[in-house]
Design goal:
Layout lengths: L10 H13 L11 H12 L8 E7 L6 H11 L4 E7 L7 H9 L2
Parallel strand pairs: 1-2
Length: about 110
């Protein structure tokens, strides 16, 4: 949402608002490290042990994952938490989503 101190969005409306705002200000560049953001959201999800909140991490990327091993580990560690991870590839870069998914599954 552009606020490093409180990066959360509430509901679909909050996500769409943050996305539209970011289109005007974000420039995508590498390396593309997913593990830090996955771990950050996982910590937030783990902090709500009663399951009263569900977290959705939307990653919009224009490249291949640079930290695949760390990203796999972060996703495995977050697997039992109340969260989903959605990865969307955008832009002109060659982005093979199937290869990314195979990599995340360890294939």
């Amino acid at each position: 949402n552009g606020d490093a101190a409180n990066p959360s969005c509430s509901g679909i409306e909050g996500i769409l608002e943050a996305y539209h705002r970011s289109l005007r200000s974000v420039q995508l560049y590498g390396p593309t490290n997913f593990a830090p953001v996955v771990n950050h959201v996982a910590r937030s999800a783990a902090a709500v042990p009663d399951g009263s909140q569900y977290f959705v991490l939307l990653i919009i990327t224009d490249g291949v994952i640079s930290d695949m091993a760390q990203t796999k580990e972060a996703i495995v560690n977050a697997a039992k938490l109340p969260m989903s991870i959605i990865i969307v590839g955008v832009g002109q870069a060659e982005f093979d989503g199937k290869a990314v998914l195979r990599g995340l599954r360890g294939g």
